[in-house]
Amino acid sequence: MTVPSAAAGNVPALSIVDLTKRYSNGVEALKGVSLTVAPGDFFALLGPNGAGKSTLIGIISSLVNKTSGQVQVFGVDLSARRDAAMRLIGLVPQEINFNLFEKPFDILVNYAGFYGIPRRQAVPLAEDELKRAQLWDKAFLMSRTLSGGMKRRLMIARAMMTRPRLLILDEPTAGVDIEIRRGMWKTLKDINIAGTTIILTTHYLEEAESLCRNLAIINHGRIVQQGPMRTLLAQLDVEGFLFDIEGELPAQLPVIEGATLAAADPHTLDLDMPRAMDLTRVFEALAAAGIRVRSMRTKSNRLEELFVRLTAAPAATPTEVSA
């Protein structure tokens, strides 16, 4: 797949400055959002329901009118040159929005036609995208016969027909099982490696942690945190682990200074400890108490912990973290 190269210089794939949106009923969905996404990035936009994600995506994709602020896509101003900006963007919405009585091949070819791509070019593009989405064997069946995961992949293939430089994915794996979800992850990684900048919204936080290099968390219409994934996760000062124990736990658990140890059940220990603490101390204390560990695993997704911390309280002052 060939994707147009980024514009000369360091022009961001997406630049948002002081973006606001106030609806006629007085609800202020966005309160001065500023955001920059670099060319070639795989970027996560996270936030709880009602945080402003859908409004923000709606404005970027020209489906919602802004109240004030600026949006540029690869240096193209959305207000001044809407059509040119839209040709740079591919959008995969959360809802299935194609004709279920149309064939996947026709859906892709017709979509390309809406963007002025001649049929002679669209036909081989449709074949390429359906093969990459592992849907070529379904190309000429009614789309209503596709499974939920296949329909999701078809929407990604459709968005890629215009070879967008910026692909926006709104909950692309919602409602699909883990096997299909991981297959879609590979497809998205391949698209990103080929040069397309991707912005992902998802409630599956392990998905964002696995795929994305940078992220922003929005809450109450404001960006409360943004920066490199690794840097943000490194801020967490506590780690949690679960230990599977041989036999049953004793009635009295050892006391480990600085850590919290509890019985999750008769055969599982729940540990919270500072990131700086050496696990050797923990294992020595358990061994001294006659507790033998068979296996251990991380208690929770690290990004989930960060997300909960930043969104549980009212929106705070926005923070940007550098690598």
Please describe what this structure looks like:
The protein is α/β, with parallel strands linked by helices and 323 residues long. The protein folds into three domains: 1-88 and 164-234, 3-Layer(aba) Sandwich (Rossmann fold); 99-160, no CATH class; 238-304, Alpha-Beta Plaits (2-Layer Sandwich). The chain has helices at residues 53-60, 82-86, 104-114, 119-132, 148-159, 178-193, 205-211, 229-234, 279-288, 302-312, and strands at residues 14-22, 28-37, 42-46, 68-73, 76-77, 89-92, 166-170, 197-201, 214-219, 222-228, 238-245, 260-265, 268-274, 293-298. It is globular and about 75 Å long. The two termini are 31 Å apart. The relative contact order is 0.14. The model is unreliable at 1-8 (pLDDT under 50).
